[in-house]
Amino acid sequence: MFVEEPTYKEEQIGIHWISGNVAPEDHPDQVATVYARNTALSEDNYHAYYFADQLQELAKPLLEGKDYIKEAEFHVQGRSSGAKWTGEEPVEEYIEQGEYDIIVDINLNEDLSDEVYVEQVCDLIRTISNCGLLTRLDIWDQPDEWIFRAYADDGALADHPEDVLNTIQANRSLRESMDDYEAWKAEHQTQSAEGNEG
Q1: What is d(CA 106, CA 195) in angstroms, rounded to the nearest whole number?
Q2: Does residue 2 surpass a pLDDT of 70?
Q3: How many domains does the chain have?
Q4: Would you tell me how many other CB atoms lie within 10 Å of the CB of residue 63?
């Protein structure tokens, strides 16, 4: 069943396509994105649900002994694919095809120096880059405020801490700019509302 209104489009060249989020009626929490067009192309990312538990069990031990991690959560996300997975295949075959991402949300301790965060991020990249799993790190220094996001398969990044530092500082600067904009927008909306009342 569609969990929201799908998008439908007719191209001038005669191609019609539809895209939307769907979920099985008996598992409404298992939302997947489907895409189909009148050329017989059909893709979805539901297949990740078949292998999610096994992939998480393979990934979780990678963070053992990382005492600087405050909290970690694992999510498996499928990449859009036309392959017809059934869940009966060996997980090794699924890993080899690379049609998934393991998203690891990692909360680090708050209010540490950027240098300490760089050391911790580089350590995580070194550990995860050699595991053979497609893993994206989303690293947070405060609730709802991430400082680093990248695929960990590029282990060479850990050998360039200056690049990690630049990324952390750029993300923090972007976050501060967005906060300033939201504050400015709220202030001007208030002033506008007060002006309309007058």
Answers
A1: 45
A2: no
A3: 2
A4: 15
Report pTM.
Answer: 0.77
Helix (H, G, I), strand (E, B) or coil at 137: strand
d(CA 112, CA 95): 36
Q: Which residues pair with 16 in a beta bridge?
A: 10
The verdict on 140 and 162 lying in the same domain is: yes
Q: Does the pLDDT at position 155 exceed 90?
A: no
pLDDT at residue 195, rounded to an integer: 64
- What count of residues does the chain have? 198
- CA geometry: angle at 29 spanning 27 and 35, to 5°? 90
Residue at 163: amino acid letter: D
Instruction: Give the pLDDT of residue 197.
Output: 63
How many angstroms separate the CA atoms of 148 and 119, rounded?
A: 13
Which of 10, 91, 17 minimizes the C-alpha distance to 54? 91
Same domain, 122 and 51: yes
Nearest CA to 78 out of 51, 105, 57, 60 is that of 51
Q: At what angle do helices 161-197 and 114-129 cross, to 10 degrees?
A: 120
